[in-house]
Design brief:
The complex is a heterodimer of chains A (about 525) and B (about 325).
Chain A lengths: L5 H7 L5 H5 L12 E6 L16 H11 L4 E3 L5 E3 L2 E6 L5 E6 L13 H9 L11 H5 L1 E8 L2 E6 L6 H4 L13 H7 L6 E7 L3 E6 L14 E6 L3 H9 L5 E2 L7 H6 L3 E6 L4 E5 L10 H8 L4 H7 L5 E3 L23 H10 L5 E7 L7 H12 L4 E7 L5 H4 L9 E3 L5 H8 L14 H12 L3 H18 L2 E7 L1 E6 L2 E2 L9 H5 L1 H4 L1 E2 L1
Parallel strand pairs in A: 1-10, 1-11, 15-16
Antiparallel strand pairs in A: 2-3, 4-5, 5-7, 6-7, 8-9, 9-10, 11-19, 12-19, 13-17, 13-18, 14-18, 20-21
Helix pairs in contact in A: 10-12, 16-17
Chain B lengths: L1 H31 L4 H6 L5 H10 L6 H13 L12 H4 L11 H36 L4 H15 L2 H15 L15 H35 L2 H8 L4 H30 L2 H7 L4 H10 L3 H28 L2 H4 L3
Helix pairs in contact in B: 1-14, 6-7, 6-9, 6-11, 7-9, 8-9, 8-12, 9-11, 10-11, 11-14, 12-13, 13-14
The chains are: A alpha+beta (about 525), B mainly alpha (about 325).
């Protein structure tokens, strides 16, 4: 295999056969028409069209998935393609990037899209007092220059080979310059569907625009209705009764019902979403590599996948890079449950037995408490006594996470290796949940960031994954799949995006009624 | 009628006093909720500085007594405060202005209207149904019909609401696709469609409230059937139905009205579970959402509305039973 696309990996790797098993008619001829109704969770009365605040499935599907566009897009096959940017090029140091923008694109209010919109939309994230999750991405831009109506040059403070990838982030939406406040209030973007009505926490209605630059490639529905259904049972019954065509995050308990129903289908992809058990690497006993290794070998990962995720996931290997990443090291030796090894490392650390507290709450991820208890049961065999401390869900992120020496956490994963590493594993960053500080790792992180050569980057990122897997201070027992369900009246392309749930949250663009 | 006015005014004053006490309870209870809005909205990103900035901006760092008095003062002027939820926190942190936030009133109004619609539909089904059942049960008391009606309604009132809701969904939506299981009504929806979507939650609530009203109707009527004037009516040769409807029912109205009013109040305040199960965008769901994100002004306003509805309907029940009872209307 010379070139591995992320999709190729998914199909040949852990989730082989998943796509084929869904039974969707593959590659049927797409056609226009119909009203797509989706029931999606993660809606709040606090929702708005401000991309900087988006964090959950409902608004991501409404905004990035329908009404707004980004500069770049991760395609269903995992490749980076242009969305509002047509092409881009970089200087060899990956510092200066020039984006050529698509011409003839208009916002839903008729305003033409151009360079000014890009500059102003990006600046939203670094505005005085703004709190945007994409702030670090934009803050790395030292200067933005308008080279022409449809050409923008961005000079970065630090070279970043992944920069165009980062611009596909769902926070970085393109708004009309000079009308951003109005666009946030009314939902004015360049997307395939224009906003008819958004009732925060209740529903969104969209209408297909008459003509769009994605015509013939995407946007097959005439109308779109996304209903906020946070209650899982209600989503399931809405799909079973045919009131909606698509639901996200199915309840695993009702999975047999959905499978038995000839009118519904489950679609499932393994992406980058993973659950972590970070240990503070500068706090005893976790500052001892042997203690960490003992713990890494004292957990039955497959059991966790089977019991906590009910099979809807894949075992993790203590590094945060998943099958949806470009340079996922799938050949890395898998850490297995090995109590003899665990005992050996414990002895190496000069201990006969080990008593540690593991602080968990289901606020960290659904099933965190079960995970800790299963871990506790297997670790006992190696003389490790894990004391499971149940913490209240309220205030978990502020009182427990980053504060207790060992706790539970999760990441939905990041589109690029660098982004993931620099979010949670770079020395000194606020979310470095294991206080990870390794000179070689740090050196590789900086080198990979500036490297444009794909093969060299693969080597770099593989080594970084290996470092975390063999020395790191975070137990990452499992990847959790994205499991959604749809009516069999729908059809989709050959591939389903695995960078986010619901076909990379672009189901409304990519799917159609067969 | 002077005495009635006096009684009404007395009750009204008492109601206001109750509401005042309730407002203190609400405020204290909401402040006892663990965690706070700043932590809830920031989630994983809750650094100490960000939390403090939001708390400062929203005035959450003020002493509770001061916050209570300000809230009460504003509420008295009809201003229920501004919702934290609609705050644009991307802009908001550090800017220190609260003026752009959506007001609680503007958010609650449409949701409250939806809840009232659901309550209305339920009442339109439940009240006639339980009165009829109650009268028939009294008429054929101790018959098979009476026992069946009692068993059915008692079973339904003893089951948790969500259980009834799922049973109804199973039989009326999943197995027999007659009614929609999602009640996602919205502004501008036609009345017919709105009614259709509201039917399942309304039926669930009907099952919950019918037993109470039906049994009270039955008991109140049977109670009167032993009275001499009923016997007189019977001896006149009137039909049993006429005896009950024309002679017994008017005298039994007071307790029935009381129980109906109590149940109507329940239809407004007790819909939380039903609204969540059916995804009905009423005040109950708003309440749950607001608690989840610690939108304190919204939670307080919802509680206050629930309390006010309860007190008001009880007041109405009192007044109606006074009006319907000559002995109370003309006290010696």
């Amino acid at each position: 295999m010379t070139r591995i696309s992320r999709r190729g990996l998914l199909r040949s790797g852990a989730a082989a056969g998943v796509l084929a098993a869904t039974g969707f008619p593959l590659m049927a001829q797409a056609k226009r028409g119909g009203k797509l109704r989706m029931a999606i969770n993660g809606a709040n009365t606090s929702d708005s069209w401000d991309g900087r605040t988006h964090s959950d499935a409902f608004m991501i599907n409404c905004a990035q998935g329908a009404v707004f566009d980004c500069l770049t897009e991760v395609s269903a096959t995992g490749e980076l393609v242009g969305e509002l940017a047509e092409s881009w090029e970089a200087t060899p140091d990956a510092k200066t990037w020039t984006f050529n923008l698509r011409q003839g694109v208009t916002f839903h209010n008729g305003k033409a899209f151009g360079a000014d919109d890009v500059i102003e939309s990006l600046n939203m994230h670094v505005a005085e007092g703004a709190k945007s999750a994409a702030q670090p991405i934009v803050a790395n831009i030292a200067e933005m220059k308008k080279l022409g109506d449809h050409q923008v040059q961005m000079v970065l403070k630090d070279g970043n080979a992944d920069f165009p990838f980062l611009l596909s982030d769902y926070h970085i939406l393109m708004y009309p310059a000079g009308q951003i406040e109005e666009a946030i209030a009314k939902g004015i973007g360049t997307g395939l569907y224009m906003n008819v009505n958004l009732d925060p926490g209740v529903r969104f209605v969209g209408k297909r625009v008459d003509s769009h630059y994605k015509d013939g490639r995407a946007g097959w529905f005439d109308e779109l209705e996304i209903i906020a259904v946070n209650d899982t049972s209600a989503r399931m019954s809405a799909l079973l009764t045919g009131q909606v065509d698509v639901v996200n995050r199915i309840d695993f308990k009702t999975e047999p019902l959905l499978k038995a129903n000839p009118k519904t289908m489950i679609f499932e992809v393994t992406g980058n979403q993973h659950y972590t058990l970070p240990m503070l690497s500068d706090v005893a006993p976790f500052d001892n590599l042997d203690v960490r290794l003992a713990l890494k070998h004292a957990v039955d990962r497959q059991e966790l996948v089977n019991k906590v995720l009910q099979g809807h996931g894949a075992v993790g290997n203590d590094h945060p890079i998943g099958p949806a990443n470009q340079y996922y090291a799938k050949d890395l030796p898998q850490i297995e449950l090995d109590l003899d090894k665990a005992k050996y490392h414990l002895k190496q650390a000069g201990m006969d037995s080990l008593n540690v507290d593991l602080h968990v709450s289901d606020a960290a991820f659904n099933g965190a408490v079960d995970t800790a208890q299963l871990f506790q049961a297997t670790a006992k065999g190696a003389g490790i006594n894990i004391n499971v401390v149940q913490e209240p869900a309220d205030g978990y992120w502020s009182n427990v996470w980053l504060k207790q020496p060992w706790c539970a956490s999760y990441y939905s994963g990041r589109a690029t290796e660098d982004w993931m590493f620099s979010t949670a594993y770079e020395a000194g960053v606020p979310w470095n949940e294991s206080h990870w500080d390794d000179p070689r790792f740090q050196e590789l992180l900086y080198a990979g960031r500036k490297e444009l050569d794909s093969d060299k980057r693969r080597a770099i990122y593989h080594e970084m994954q290996e470092i975390l897997s063999t020395r790191g201070s975070t137990v990452i027992p499992m990847y959790a799949n994205y499991v959604d369900a749809a009516s069999t009246a729908l059809a989709h392309g050959e591939n389903i995006g695995n960078n986010f749930q619901l076909d990379g949250s672009r189901l409304a663009e990519r799917w159609w009624f067969s | 009628m002077g005495s009635v006015t006096r009684i009404v005014l007395q009750r009204l004053a008492l109601g206001l006093l109750t509401l005042f006490v309730v407002s203190i309870v609400i405020f204290t209870a909401v402040n006892l909720l663990p965690g706070d809005f700043a932590q809830a909205i920031l989630g994983q990103g809750a650094t100490e500085e960000a939390v403090n900035a939001i708390r400062r901006d929203l005035g959450l760092d003020q002493p509770p007594v001061q916050r209570y008095l300000e809230w009460l003062g504003d509420a008295l002027q009809g201003d229920l405060g501004t919702s934290f939820a609609q705050a644009n926190f991307a802009n908001f942190v550090g800017s220190g202005t609260v003026s752009e936030l959506a007001s609680v009133t503007s958010q609650i109004a449409p949701r409250f209207a939806n809840t009232m619609f659901l309550a209305g539909v339920t009442a339109a089904i439940a009240v006639p149904l339980s009165l009829t059942l109650g009268i028939l049960a009294a008429l054929y008391r101790n018959s098979v019909f009476d026992k069946l009606a009692n068993i059915t309604t008692l079973t339904s009132i003893s089951s948790p609401e969500f259980f009834l809701a799922y049973i109804l969904i199973l039989f009326l939506a999943v197995l027999n696709p007659w009614l929609p299981s999602l009640s996602n009504i919205y502004a501008g929806m036609g009345f017919g469609e709105r009614l259709e979507k509201t039917l399942l939650p309304a039926l669930t609530l009907t099952l919950v409230v019918t037993a109470h009203m039906m049994r009270m109707t039955r008991a109140a009527i049977i109670n009167l059937l032993a009275s001499p004037y009923i016997e007189m009516a019977r001896l006149k040769g009137l039909s049993p139905m006429r005896v009950i409807v024309r002679h017994a029912l008017p005298n039994a109205l007071a307790p029935i009205i009381n129980v109906i009013a109590l149940n109507l109040a329940y239809l407004i305040t007790g819909v939380v579970v039903v609204e969540v199960v059916f995804v009905y965008p009423g005040i109950g769901q708003l309440f749950v959402d607001s608690v989840k994100i610690r939108d304190i002004p919204m939670v307080q306003a919802c509680c206050l509305i629930f309390a006010a509805a309860y007190i008001l309907l009880n007041l109405l029940a009192d007044i109606l039973s006074i009006v319907s009872n000559p002995r109370l209307r003309h006290p010696k």
